[in-house]
Write a structure and sequence with these properties.
Elements lengths: L4 E3 L4 E6 L5 E6 L1 H12 L3 E3 L3 E2 L2 H13 L1 E3 L3 E2 L4 E8 L2 E7 L10 H9 L6 E5 L8 H13 L3 E5 L4 H4 L2 H12 L4 E5 H6 L10 H10 L8 E5 L5 E5 L2 E5 L12 H15 L8 H16 L9 H6 L1
Parallel strand pairs: 1-4, 1-10, 2-8, 4-6, 5-7, 10-11, 11-12, 12-13
Antiparallel strand pairs: 2-3, 8-9, 13-14, 14-15
Helix pairs in contact: 1-9, 3-4, 4-6, 9-10
């Protein structure tokens, strides 16, 4: 029996700056990307936030449905949020427009009602821009209640300090969220920005130990750490493996981490038992999915058949 994945987070338009100064809109937002990636891998996925009734929102709803994602959050008249993306040497930088927008038009009670309506608890994923104060208070309330109902909490930190402004309250908010998290994904940039001493991918177990030492017993049973072009590390209750990035020609890296974690969650959702025995296989397939995404413009997660054929 597979486990359903429910995704709480932003859906926004990435407006990619072109060499001639024009902006090319592409669908994005870390949780939106992750929902697509997990569904394309074959998992049962529902998106919980409202989508705008504007043109961008209609397109996003169509894309999610095409990829197999269930739309549970309904629609709103508020506009779709925007991110202006400048890509330099394959690395994106962002400017966000996030006030009075569709994906923040939700309530704690509304989300919890959707979760309670499920016959059995599943995986609740969140992260990225919803973890920025003061929005994180709503997320914390949802996570606390979801854990009490038996849901497994997944978080991708996906830290965005340029949006948050003051860093210290943001880091404190992330620590509160991480303490409620079962399955965590973080990049080396995320953890260094949070104040962790830098380590290389080969020293990943040190960061895993530090993270687990900072939270209550039982949290962070599964931890994934990504190091860009240097590879990634996956730990499930002490069973761990590290792999390098597959050789590819990079077009850009937008959505690579979302594709990686979406495929990791899908692997666990589709095969809930004995995940610790599949650490290397799970990590390998997730990295192949992320590598394929990096050969494409914007976030375009692969289907399961593409991953298997890579």
């Amino acid at each position: 029996m597979t486990t359903p994945i429910f995704v709480l987070g932003e859906a926004l338009m990435d407006c990619i700056a072109q060499p001639d100064g024009q902006l090319r809109p592409l669908m994005g937002g870390s949780p939106f990307n992750l929902a697509r990636a997990a569904a394309l891998r074959g998992a049962s996925v529902a998106y919980l936030n409202p989508l705008s009734s504007d043109l961008f929102g209609q397109g996003m709803a169509g894309q999610l449905q095409k990829d197999g994602v269930h739309l549970s959050g309904g629609r709103t008249v508020l506009p779709t949020s925007l991110a202006v993306v400048q890509v330099s040497n394959g690395q994106p930088s962002y400017g966000f427009y996030r006030e009075g927008i569709a994906d923040r038009d939700y309530t704690v009670d509304g989300i919890l009602a959707l979760l309670r309506a499920q016959k059995t608890p599943g995986i609740l994923h969140t992260g990225s821009l919803l973890l920025i104060p003061p929005e994180h208070h709503k997320v914390l309330a949802i996570l606390q209640a979801a854990r009490a109902m038996g849901w497994t909490i997944s978080v991708d930190i996906n830290l965005r300090p340029q949006v948050a402004g003051e860093l210290t309250p943001y880091v404190n908010a992330l620590k509160e969220v991480i303490a409620l998290t079962d399955w965590l994904k973080a990049s080396d940039e995320d953890l260094e920005t949070m104040g962790f001493a830098p380590v290389g991918v080969g020293e990943s177990p040190r960061w895993v130990r530090e993270l687990r030492a900072s939270v209550p017993a039982g949290a962070l049973s599964r931890v994934a750490l990504t190091f860009g072009r240097d590879g990634a590390h996956l730990d499930i209750e002490g069973h761990n493996h590290t792999l390098p990035v597959p050789p590819i020609s990079v077009v850009d890296t937008v959505g690579a981490g979302d594709t990686f974690w979406g495929n990791t969650l899908a692997d666990w959702a589709l095969q809930p038992d004995k995940a610790a025995l599949r650490v290397m296989v799970t990590l390998s397939l997730a990295m192949k999915a992320a590598a394929i995404n990096c050969t494409r413009l914007g976030c375009q997660p692969p289907q399961q058949a593409e991953i298997m054929a890579f």
